[in-house]
Amino acid sequence: MKDFLQILLVGIGDGAVYAMLGLGLVVIYRSTGLLNFAQGEMAMFSTFIVWTMWSLGLPMWLAILGGMAGGFCVGALVHQVAVRPVGDPHEKPLAVVIVTIGLFLGVNGAAQLIWGTLDRSMPPLFGRGQVTVFGVAVAWQKIGAVIVLGVMVLLFYLLFQHTKLGLAMRAVASNSESASLVGIPVPRLLMLGWGLAAAVGTVAGVFIAPNLGLGTNLMQLTLIFGFAAITLGGFDSLVGAVVGGFVVGALSSVMPRYITIFEKMPLAPAFILILAVLLFRPEGLFGKKQVTRV
Amino acid sequence: MSSAGDGVSSAGDGVSSAGHLLEVKTLGAGYGIVEVLFGVDLVVDQGEVVVVLGANGAGKTTTLRAISGMIAATGQVTFLGESVLGRRPDQLVKRGMAHVPQGRGTVTSLTVEENLRIGAFVRSDEQIESDIEQWFEAFPRLGERRDQLAGSMSGGEQQMLAIARALMSRPKLLLLDEPSLGLAPLVTHEVFDRLREISTSTGTAVLLVEQNANLALDFAARAYVLEAGRIVLSGNAADLQGDAAIQKAYLGV
Ligand SMILES: Nc1ncnc2c1ncn2[C@@H]1O[C@H](COP(=O)(O)OP(=O)(O)O)[C@@H](O)[C@H]1O
Ligand SMILES: [Mg+2]
Predict the structure, then answer these.
(1) Sequence spans of domains, chain B
(2) Does residue B4 have a pLDDT over 60?
(3) Closest to B70 measured CA to CA, from B105, B117, B109, B40
């Protein structure tokens, strides 16, 4: 039992990070109506920015803020030069999704050019210490991830539900033509959505990098967990991303322990979950049914 | 062929052209290589209710879309004395032109109240909340459903919501695209009754495009008839209503 609890908590800690990545995906979905396959690579890129600033001697928190700002600019730039020229995502969703897949490769290549292919190491934000809760050891880093996640969800909730800007972003995502007709400068808000999502991705990257090592493939597996999380939670739901992230983290941690074939296939639980949700509840646990654009 | 815009010479930059709120001259527009409008001329004065009548496919929707900047266009569009051709719709809303598109264009995944609130996006005054409450008083059915998703409302309710939302920007000119489309006759009548009340009480000018000529001519002071992308007739609504030839051709009498 204690063993199970231990594995579960590890999984939930991992899940917090999947949820952060999922949060970035939800933010883009809610502000632009798109699934962004380049989300992970944008996060990797801005995590490298954090690493660069940190290794130049800046304190970690400042480096993270810098990385988020850098990520914001990368996201906004990506939207301006690669996504916007393709056209309205509501008219040509497939074309824009394919662009995000191309971006995946482009951003990865750019990172390799700038930072090379060697893995870098980054210290855990909350140190390497542990606390023992009910006889189960939990790393501070994982507790920290859960807390940071909570703060991010709260901030985004306030933005989307309680500000004029957030309302405008939701209107743009749902119907950009109508949004434009009430006076919302649609291109500017789309750019903002991309920027915010990339900034969120930075935080996810900062939590993942100490575990996996910071390389250009940092996010490639993690993004799949992030997609599994929001598929379960619902593409447009912040809370869904969190719940989905925890469930995906827990499953991916617990299942290989008890079902031996999963040991060699760490992604299998996530894929099975994606398939099951798409089959039985395509809108996810917290998603709105009518939102069907991909 | 006559057009009410004739005889009014367009003035130079910065000078309002003979005081018209909206002046459209030789407006051309289309989709890709398909041309739809071939030089549309029309004017709307401050506080005036004007209708553009035309059969299905005549180019009514295209006319409104070209005026509000939703699609590229050629010719001249002067609003409040300023040339606005090539501006984006959101820039025109700021200047006081609101457009209720064909098919209403409510944001179906936002609540009724959020739809009204978003209508005030260009405003930053203190009266937004009281304006929202006023609309709920004027349309109790919207008020009762303020927290429901707009998509869950009936066609007539969504049309009223779309109009109320557009008016939340406190426009000087309301472009209205076939509000009767898809509505039962009774509901259509109600929508037009409410429109009449609103335009009288707020003094907002309305440029309406409609197929339903009888209702529209009752509502409007002046009318244009659009045929295959050209204005072929214009005049006072009452005159058009009484004209036998027009009755036969456009009113299906
Ligand atoms: N998006 C579009 N792409 C191509 N052709 C269009 C489009 N919208 C309208 N049209 C064509 O333009 C003409 C005028 O359409 P429209 O302005 O919608 O007419 P109305 O509103 O008077 O019914 C029609 O022949 C229609 O087929
Ligand atoms: Mg039409």
Answers:
(1) 8-96+172-251, 106-170
(2) no
(3) B105
Mean pLDDT of A142-163: 94
Q: Residue B178 CA: which ligand 1 atom is closest?
A: 21
For every residue of B136-183, which 3-state class applies, written as one string?
HHHCHHHHHCCCCEHHHCCHHHHHHHHHHHHHCCCCCEEEEECCCCCC
Instruction: Count CB atoms within 10 A of the CB of residue B96.
Output: 18
Closest CA to A149 of A241, A248, A27, A46: A241
Q: How far from each other are the two terminal CA atoms of chain B, in whole angstroms?
A: 23
Note whether A290 contacts B: Cβ–Cβ < 8 A. Answer: yes
pLDDT in tens, B209-223: 999 888 899 999 999
* CA nearest to A210, candidates A143, A128, A271, A140: A128
Question: What was the pLDDT predicted at B15?
Answer: 41
What is the amino acid identity at position B118?
I
Could B110 and A168 be called an inter-chain contact, meaning their C-beta atoms sit closer than 8 Å? no
Residue ranges covered by each domain of chain A: 2-280
What's the pLDDT tens digit per position in B80-98? 999 999 999 999 999 999 9
Domain B8-96+172-251 belongs in CATH node 3.40.50.300: yes
Q: Give the integer Cα–Cα distance in Å for A205 and A199.
A: 10
pLDDT tier for residue A137 given thresholds of 50, 70 and 90:
confident
Report pLDDT for A34.
85
Q: Of A119, A146, A132, which Cα lies nearest the Cα of A211?
A: A119
Fold of A2-280: ABC transporter involved in vitamin B12 uptake, BtuC (1.10.3470)
Q: Which of B51, B61, B68 to mutate to test the pocket of ligand 1 (most atoms within 8 A of CB)?
A: B61
**Least confident interval from A132-136, B32-36, B55-59, B158-162:** A132-136
Ligand 2 mean position, distance from CA B55 (Å): 9
Picking from B235, B237, B246, the residue whose alpha carbon sits closest to that of residue B219 is B237
Among residues B36, B34, B54, B43, which one has the least CA distance to residue B173? B43
E strands present in chain A:
130-133, 136-139
Which range, A40-54, A85-99, A246-260, is most confident?
A40-54
Nearest ligand 1 atom to alpha carbon B30: 12
A60-78 vs A93-115: helix axis angle to the nearest 10?
A: 140
